[in-house]
Design goal:
By secondary structure, the protein is mainly β. It has helices at residues 4-28, 142-145, 306-311; strands at 43-58, 65-66, 72-73, 76-89, 92-103, 112-114, 117-118, 130-141, 156-170, 179-191, 195-210, 233-234, 239-249, 260-269, 294-305, 319-329, 356-367. The protein has one domain: Outer membrane phospholipase (ompla), Chain C (Beta Barrel), CATH 2.40.230.
């Protein structure tokens, strides 16, 4: 998720609290014929943005090809188109983003099961896969819910209840259809230059997904629930998660050069059971299909506020140019050292380089 909008949430929340407090004090003054304060709108802030980014070395677990020199190519370029919504209301914030990832031919769409190979084992030049991924998070601040300032002390800005959901779909042969929910707390801390860092310990439950390769009938009848899934759908056990994000303007720069900010995020998601949903196939050693702790992160993003630089502070963050580093280990919970035929070559144990994503990428974001 883009953390820039959460930075705006922190700033807007502070502004809203100050504004509401100021009105209450004014109402207490013995001013004759004082006008009634206007009602606040339901949403104090609404912010919508679109982004385009290009990722030169994206990955999709299990999608890899062999180069002429015998080395494995497990990466594919991805174009990313995103819409992001953020709003602030009296009791907290809501954040929603939906993205479309368009891969190159090294990550093919169905009916290919691998680059250049279709389900029948014959050669096919399938188009790159398209994935749609949506994410939603809502936070309900304790200071706002209980009408207090007790949860603001020192660098601690607020404590919130947090809930959310993720969902995706992709038109490759695997045909994933991830559905998960999260719930827990968020601890918001202030950083210098109007920045923040949020830490959210959560419960994570991926209650549904789809895996075409484990569907009964694909490789023989099998035993439903033991060696195959009757309809390809998988339900995992609940596990723990920790999500962290931060934002800070580079306010130490000279005033005529204050167009830059840094942000970042990281999410750790605990083991959720066997990656195929079939414990009987988990195995041991390098051929294990047991899930592992997943780290999905963007440690740093450097943003240039192009609209502020061109048109002044009034247009701050209307057009942002940015570059970031993305690191995703044990992608989707798949063990990058063990998952056979996906993260490793089943016959040799050699890494396919598809379950770790490490890439520099960049893009442009426009507010509307």
């Amino acid at each position: 998720m883009s953390v820039r909008f959460k930075a705006m949430a922190a700033a807007a929340l502070s502004f809203a609290v100050l504004a509401i407090g100021g009105q209450a004090q004014a109402a207490d003054l013995p001013v004759k014929a004082a006008k009634k304060a206007a009602d606040l709108p339901f949403f104090l802030v609404i912010d919508n943005r679109v982004s385009f980014s290009w990722m030169p070395k994206g990955t999709d677990p299990g999608m890899w090809s062999v180069r002429p020199d015998g080395s494995i190519n497990g990466t594919t370029a991805k174009q990313v188109y995103s819409f992001t919504h953020f709003d602030l209301w009296a009791y907290g914030t809501n954040f929603f983003t939906i993205s479309m990832f368009k891969s190159g031919h090294n990550d093919p769409a169905s009916p290919c099961v691998a680059p250049g190979v279709n389900i029948n084992g014959t050669a096919s030049d399938c188009a790159g896969a398209t994935e749609i991924y949506g994410l939603f998070r809502s936070a309900f601040g304790w200071n706002e819910l209980f009408n207090t300032k007790a949860f603001t002390m020192g660098p601690l800005h607020n404590i919130s209840f947090e809930v959310g959901m993720d969902a995706n779909t992709e038109n490759n042969f695997l045909a994933p259809a991830k559905r998960d929910v999260v719930a827990g707390l968020q601890f918001a801390f202030d950083l210098p230059y109007k920045g923040y860092i949020n830490v959210a310990p959560l419960m994570y439950w991926e209650f549904s997904n789809h895996n075409a390769f484990t569907q009964c009938g694909l490789f023989g009848p099998g035993i439903p629930g033991t060696t195959c899934n009757s309809d390809g759908n998988v339900s995992y056990r609940p596990t723990w998660a920790v999500e962290i994000n931060y934002y800070m303007d580079l306010g130490f720069l000279p005033e005529n050069f204050q167009f830059f900010s840094i942000s970042g995020r990281a999410g750790w998601y605990g083991p959720k059971g066997d990656s195929n949903g079939l414990p009987a196939l988990s195995g041991l050693g390098r051929f294990s299909t047991a899930s592992k702790t997943e780290l999905n992160s963007e440690p740093i993003r450097l943003t240039f506020d192009a609209s502020k630089a061109a048109w002044g502070a009034k247009y701050s963050h209307f057009v942002d140019l940015w570059v970031a580093y993305r690191y995703w280990q044990n992608k989707f919970g798949l063990d990058h050292n063990a998952m056979p035929g996906v993260c490793t070559v089943a016959a040799t144990g050699q890494s396919t380089n598809t379950c770790t994503e490490s890439t520099v990428y960049g893009g442009v974001t426009v507010k509307f």
